[in-house]
Amino acid sequence: MVHPKEFALDRPGFLAQADKPSPRPIRAWGFTTDSLAAEQRRAAWEEVMGRLRLPLGRLAEAEPFRGSVSCLGSPLGMDFALMSATPQEISGRNPAQPAAVWIVVLLEGEASFWDGETTTALKTGDIIYGPTGINAALKLTTAFRLLYISAPRVALDHRLLAPLSLKVGRFAGDRGLGHVFSGLLRATGETLQDLTSEQLRPMELAVTEFLVANLAAEHSPAAVGGAGAARAAHLHRVCQTIETLLSDPELDLERVAAEDSISTRSLQKLFASAGQSFSTYVRGRRLERCRLDLSSPICATLSISEICFRWGFNGSAHFSRAFKERYGVSPREYRKSHLGEDLAADDDQAA
């Protein structure tokens, strides 16, 4: 087997910068067939696709094969891969894939997508998505460029009201919210190799939020919890309101009900229809916001207590217990594993 030629994408600002130390630089690697003999390229490409955990189907035989990949692994575990190659098929399922959600946006070329039931022609800018473990097929009939994103389920499931209901699907890239999401992904693909870890971090949040918003707009069971369309849209609006109020330690059922001009009983029923409770949802969102801050170099000067109070927790000891219960490690251990000893602020009793 020919091993792909890997290289660090060490453009200015991409890996750790001399004037802004980063203890956990982005995992970056790349591959190109340009330096390989024609008879070596297909085997090398198969290995590259294996590294991306993508199930490779048929490769076109009509022309010399060419392909390249630039891949970044974000601090929170998302993979962003810019891929260009000659025609091929990515199909089936890979049993070695971890629990994740994949997103693909077609940047150039012609392609069709089979979601397990129907085949749809894709246009430039269209987005396809789905959880790993479900059979699907992307047939790329011409030379192409695409952006592939793989997000661990842990980074997404907390934003879905019914995560186990997530299926394979498509967002049209030429209208509505799908057009906005497509623009974000296409811009990411064009600038991927120049992004720093700090710049990639908000992309993780944006990708997650846009995916959930698009699912809600299409009344996906994953986003609406199996409720009716009107109720699902209402619940999504309530959740967006909660996001803007998370930092308020006095946030309660009455406050959100008043913001939405409904009774507290109706609000409770709205969450119950999705198998949730108001208090559990709010605590989960606060914990997730704290987790993101604990791993962010931007928040490295904040103590753990400052972070937990920032997102509405009333006590650092209670926060620490809740965090360890949800993520399996203490806030201090989580922060050190992401920032290291040097960048983390002096931590206090919220250990």
Secondary-structure blueprint:
Layout: E1 27-32, H1 38-51, E2 56-59, E3 67-73, E4 79-85, E5 88-92, E6 100-108, E7 111-114, E8 119-122, E9 127-131, E10 136-140, E11 144-152, E12 169-171, H2 176-191, H3 197-217, H4 221-224, H5 229-245, H6 253-260, H7 264-272, H8 278-294, H9 304-310, H10 316-327, H11 331-343
Antiparallel strand pairs: 1-3, 2-5, 3-4, 4-11, 5-10, 6-9, 6-11, 7-8, 7-10, 9-12
How would you characterize this protein structure?
The protein is α+β, with helices and mostly antiparallel strands. It has eleven helices and twelve strands. The protein has helices spanning 38-51, 176-191, 197-217, 221-224, 229-245, 253-260, 264-272, 278-294, 304-310, 316-327, 331-343, and strands at 27-32, 56-59, 67-73, 79-85, 88-92, 100-108, 111-114, 119-122, 127-131, 136-140, 144-152, 169-171. Strands 1-3-4-11-6-9-12 form a seven-stranded antiparallel sheet, sandwiched between helices. A five-stranded antiparallel sheet has the order 2-5-10-7-8. Helix 2 (176-191) runs antiparallel to helix 3, helix 6 (253-260) packs across helix 7 and helix 8 (278-294) runs antiparallel to helix 9 (304-310).
